Amino acid sequence: MLDKKIEEARVAIRAQLDTTDNPREILKSPAIKDLYAQLSELPNEEKAEAGKRINDFKNEVISWVHEATSSESESSVESIDITAPWSANVPGDQTANPLPPSQGSTHPLHQEIEHICDIYRRMGFVVEESREIDDDYHMFTSLNFPEDHPARDDYDTFMTDEGLVAPAHTSTMQNRVLKKFAANLENNEPIAVIVPDRVFRNEDLDATHEHTFYQVEGVFVGKDVTVGNLIATLSAFMTEYFGEELKTKLQPFYFPFTEPSFEFAIERPEILKKDDSEEQKWLELLGCGMIHPNVLREAGIDPEVYSGFAWGNGIERMVMMKHGIEDVRHFESANLQFLRQF
Ligand code: DAH
């Protein structure tokens, strides 16, 4: 009896679906309501089984409606390429000439980030992501910036009225990765993490300054880790990245979260040398140092037992050097003429 009713409803609803302009209305069809109404007339012991059969049928109808509405939206709404510059989606704008997806390419910065991660992975580092909104604690306090210390001003940090922070460096992740991988130390393994991600600063924009740019942070902690390990790690990376063995130089610097702190310079690779002058000899590439005991302590790591180093490397400058890009603002411009070159 119920089977017959369901079959009748199926035929009626299929017919309705073929003719209606609004497939969604079908879910309110009296044919379905009538089926549910039947339930109350059945003896109690049959209700559960019958209810299940009606629900199955209703799910079948729902999937027909989905099918009908998705093909409807495909045919009636013109698709847009949300990754293209806005003008590409203006109807009739012939100048936009959007890239077909088959000819799209990875953004030059992302190609480079992948390449950088690849090298560090082979050196035993794991890759973690940062975030695009953070707090004062991770931006400053956990990194040993005393309250009201002028060094906080060096970072031109965007903040909301509520005190949230757009991270101005990837060092915001140090406290988190130290805590996350602290168990490595108990197992006699080092913490070896890199964090490539986006950072933001309230900069006056010009060819070498952008408000949005990328850094890769590195953190290494273990027993008896020294400045020698820091130099060896960064030198190994640079040799692999630039494809030639380069001399390196540390010069003293100041960061609140490292002690001692350094600027790491490399001998300028031949391909990037303009001439043989002394100024062209060295290239300051990144900030680094031995992680300050207060930073380790804040993450629950005993600085009497463990030591480590960290570094932060801007990515744009390396990519600009590699490809001869003259203006950092190209990266965020979504300019197809620029992007087509990569
Ligand atoms: N966070 C620093 C900056 O953006 C760079 C930096 C320096 C990162 C030293 C480090 C470090 O991890 O140890 O200017």
β-strand percent reads 15-25%
In whole angstroms, the N-to-C terminal distance is 68 Å
Secondary-structure arrangement, i.e. CATH architecture of the largest domain: 2-Layer Sandwich
Q: What about the largest sheet?
A: 7 strands, mixed
Assign a percent range to the helix content.
25-40%
**Segments where pLDDT lies below 50 for 5+ residues?**
none
Annotation field: number of helices: 11
Briefly note the CATH topology name of the largest domain. BirA Bifunctional Protein, domain 2
Summing up helix and strand content along with how strands pair, one would put the structural category as: alpha+beta
User: Would you list the SSEs in sequence order as H and E?
Assistant: HHHHEEHEHHEEHEEEHEHH
Instruction: Give the total of domains.
Output: 2
* Overall geometric form: elongated
Ligand identities = 3,4-dihydroxyphenylalanine
User: What is the C-alpha radius of gyration, as a whole number of Å?
Assistant: 30 Å
CATH superfamily of the largest domain: Bira Bifunctional Protein, Domain 2
Mean of all residue-level pLDDT scores: 88
CATH class of the largest domain: Alpha Beta
Q: How are the strands of the biggest sheet laid out side by side?
A: 1-4-5-9-8-7-6
Number of strands: 9
